[in-house]
Amino acid sequence: MLERLKEIRLEAAERLEACKDEAELEALNVSVLGRSGALTEVLRAMGAMHKTKRAEVGQAANALKRELEEKIAAKRKALSLRLAELKLLKETLDITEPGRLLCKRGRLHPMTLAYREIRDALVGMGFIPFDGPEVELDEYCFTLLNIPPGHPARDVQDTFYINESVVLRPHTSPCQIRSLKQLEPPFRVVIPGRCFRVDEPDASHSPVFMQMEGLVVDRHITLSDLKGTLETFAHAVFGEDVKTRFRPSYFPFTEPSAEMDISCTICKGKGCRVCKGSGWLEILGSGVTNPHVIENCGLDPHEWSAFAFGLGVDRVASLKYGIPDIRLQYENDARFLSQF
Ligand code: PHE
After folding, report:
1. 24, 8 in Cβ contact below 8 A?
2. Which residues of 180-201 are buried (b: 16+ CB within 10 A; e: fewer)?
3. Which amino acid residue places its CA nearest to atom 12 of ligand 1?
4. pLDDT tens string 246-265
5. Is residue 199 part of a domain?
6. 42 and 143 fall within a common domain
7. Per-residue pLDDT at 275 exceeds 80
8. Are 275 and 246 part of one and the same domain?
9. What range does the domain containing 136 cover?
10. Domain containing 137 — which CATH number?
11. What value does the mean pLDDT take over residues 201-210?
């Protein structure tokens, strides 16, 4: 029996040495210490032994059992450490590897670029930015702007109605009402914003478009204040050599009203496809504020006067950057936007 124990010890030591993983170790554990393992069998066979022999063999067998249990536990620990080490080695980063280049940088939208130029020109003349909602009261879009019921601008063919009294604003002019009601005169405001009209999209129409409104409220405002401001503005945005002209026009909320043209930025006034041969480009609508509007907002029209103007920011962007189709500015194709 003692011989057998020696054999078991030797064989176990050899196998332990050769163990490469957890599974092999477990197989060894079972085959020696398991229920029908080699050592267990020796222990079981001891019952049939002579008393003195049994004590001797028992001691040796139990000692071997303890020894093997310890060795297997130690090996198990060593194996798991090795495993963790291998895993860490696999996860090392090569910090000398060159990084990937970030070549897709975002850019400002041409409309944003155009608006910022317009805004900066006006802020330089004392205007402050103001804001109003895209979903607006019919009253602010029309009634208080002196646009009476039955006026073609109120037609559902032109304006998106949310319900009887709420619309998607068809222009930024309702912000004139909002600022007149909200701010203490005198003041000057510049108001950018998205507007909506029932329009079939084509090269020069989009059902959503970007306008910018300007309003100056003060005592003794005259048409020459309007002309001087808008000429300065046109030179700041389109260049010092651009020419301007004013044509009489009609808006219910201004009296008198005028449209401002600038000399064509493409052909410099000689006549081309963009200006349809006229040499002039229509750039904005404007006028001295109708006293009814001032009164509608709770101000005394004998004390306060104003002038207002509105333009298409997308149109300014088209002219400044030579964009032939307005829809390009609303489709936001990254290949188009990346050119600015
Ligand atoms: N709201 C007018 C339009 O959309 C433009 C305008 C604004 C005209 C202010 C006069 C004064 O056409």
Report:
1. no
2. beeeebebbbbbbbebbbeeee
3. 285
4. 999 999 999 999 999 999 99
5. yes
6. no
7. yes
8. yes
9. 110-337
10. 3.30.930.10
11. 93
